[in-house]
Amino acid sequence: MNDTPFGFNRPGDGDDDKPQDPFGGMGGGMGDMRQFADMLHRFADMIGTQGAPGAGSDGPLNWDLAKNIARHTVVENGGDPSVLEAERTKIVEALRLADLWLDEGTTLPAGIRTPQAWSRSEWIEGTVPVWEKVIDPIASRMVESMGGALGGGLGEDVPAEMQAMAGPLLGMVRQMAGAMVGGQTGQALGALAKEVTSSSDVGLPLAPAGVGALLPAGVTAFGEGLEVSADEVRLYLALREAAHQRLFAHVPWLRGHLLGAVEDYARGITVDLSGIEQAVSGLDLSNPEALQEALGDGISLTPAETPQQKAALARLETTLALVEGWVDTVVNRVAEGRLPEAVKLAEAVRRRRATGGPAERTFATLVGLELRPRRLREAGALWRTLTDVRGTDGRDAVWEHPDLLPTADDLTDPDAYVHGTAEGLSDADLTALTEPHSTEVARTEDAPGALGQVPGAEKPEGDGDQGKDEGQDKGKGDAEPGA
């Protein structure tokens, strides 16, 4: 079993000469009807010991099983010490002080109402509701594809009696797939919990609304070898957590924008059945334990190279880069002059990303997206330039609407964006996008659109705004071909 929830193969990987019948080559492995019935009973018993996917949720995988495995992963070898009261007090004070400092660095209000210190097990428990929304669409595609493919493999030449009895078997296969994905997800979340320092470390809004949390064990691990005081490490990471929470709390469309990109990507996922076909070829189905092992070793997901999936990945990467770049810019400016080792701590964050931090590993595993450090550097450079030219108010106003955000092309040419699109946006432009078209904004939050489109600006109210909108659209169109 893999230690990550899903393993990705690019389209075209593997053997082209795939057997078309996943049950091909089994010959007499089914045996007589009595043997087949006995196999079904044994298979049901095995499923019962693992738990059906619906036992922990209404989704395709068993989240109770996933949480139990994740907690077991973090507690083994004493890896999840309880949070001491003294540690909890220091974390809460650091998060509160961080928010006071950030008031001077951003116009976005504080987003943390409940500062908390989490153990690794508490991180798992506190973030699973969001992980369900992220992973369930992918797991659903996997379970449905497996069940459908194995069902289609029975063929018309199989006796009717055996086809009727195979129905429960296929249902059990779906249950087994859900249990396997739940187990793999649990292992992955447990491994991730050992690395994260906060609720926002992977770049997604994982914590409940209003909650900001640091993990004392993760904070300590981050500071090892830096030769920086524990108080300074804690406060720097508190600044990053508090900055993330300001975005997640006060940019209402951002949560749906990020999670929607993952869901859009999941819709195009297919299951590469070549491994399953090879694994079950010649397998004796009277041995369900062997079938379980074969299925576990043979599953892999293949992201389809469709325009929709490419657009979803591009949108996800660009938005994640913009979030992290904004946090870097705000935190480093606030920390400068307050934390003596701010530069060293910022460099530690960059090194962690370059070598594959929690966010990089999560998205590479989950959706096959490799976050490029260069993209993050470009986003940081754009926000810094925008701050210098437009000031804090002008920089943060970009978050007013998703269509004001820089595009992927803008990241490669930040000066063109800062001195073109962003510089040309007046207060009237922002008002035209955000206030008169509240219906369009709400619709964007529910179903995020592609970056660069301005649904609220297509039919502006008043003749005076029309020229501005046309000029804005023209400016964006001119910038894109040159990128």
TrEMBL record:
Keyword Isomerase found: no
Keywords, in A-Z order: Hydrolase
InterPro entries listed in its UniProt record: Zinicin_2 (IPR018766), Zinicin_2_N (IPR042271)
GO molecular function: hydrolase activity
Pfam families xrefs: Zincin_2
NCBIfam families: putative hydrolase (TIGR03624)
Annotated protein name in UniProt: Hydrolase
